[in-house]
Amino acid sequence: MDEYYTVQYCNCANTRPSSTIESTLTEDEVARLTAAAKPARKEDAGSSARKHKAILDAALKVFLRSGYLGANMEEIAALSAVSKQTIYKHFSSKEALFVEIVTSMTDVASASVHNEVPEIGDDEGIAGFLQMYAYRQLTVVLTPRLMQLRGLVIGEVARFPQLARILYERGPQRAIASLAQTFKRLAARGLLVIDDPLIAASHFNWLVMSEPLNKAMLLGDKAIPKPAALRRHAAEGVRVFLAAYGKNDRNAPHAHSLTRPSMGD
Fold first, then answer.
1. Is the whole model's pTM more than 0.85, yes or no?
2. Engineered SS bond to 207: which of 6, 236, 237, 251, CB 3.0-4.6 Å?
3. Cβ partners under 8 Å of residue 87, min gap 6
């Protein structure tokens, strides 16, 4: 298995094969397709989990290379070293397999950024804390695998509109909501000056993500910045953010006002 495509997934499965559904998905259908199922016997749980992950790893590789319509279950079965019948024991259709790949990868990436965020210490500068947060977000999101998945979902938005919604809700929307809670706590400690944490979080998120994300999406993997460039970009984004929301800049215009804050030293 190509290590490049090895990722973490939740152990979700459906048990009854069916033909591929070509209609668009409703929210209930997405929930149904991603619902977990119990292994048939406890003694088979380990083997079932290994096969489940092997199928997902192989399917990810095939979907990213061939797209949704170009992917076929025979190739996925061959790459995962299982039979088609085994695939259908884990996933009811190619559609169900695609849904789980998107939801699982999005959840894993989001959790990597937003779970277990350390609290800033009393002797720690706010700029360094925010730079750490920004750099972690950039390095988790700006990977070839996630950029290709994002492009694949955008390309299939007419067929799977609910998946695009899931990608947004569990990606940018979750990031902004998590940031808003962090900023609310920082403002309560007097480390930031914020009227609306959600607006401030949106400003921070897109200051950090918009330029490198758009480059990677439109120009491909080679446009993903190197770590040193990402650190510089994170530092500059934080500098601009603190010009509007830092406690030492109370008299400066807010970032959401019509007047642009001064960028001078």
1. no
2. 237
3. 55, 73, 76, 77, 80, 97
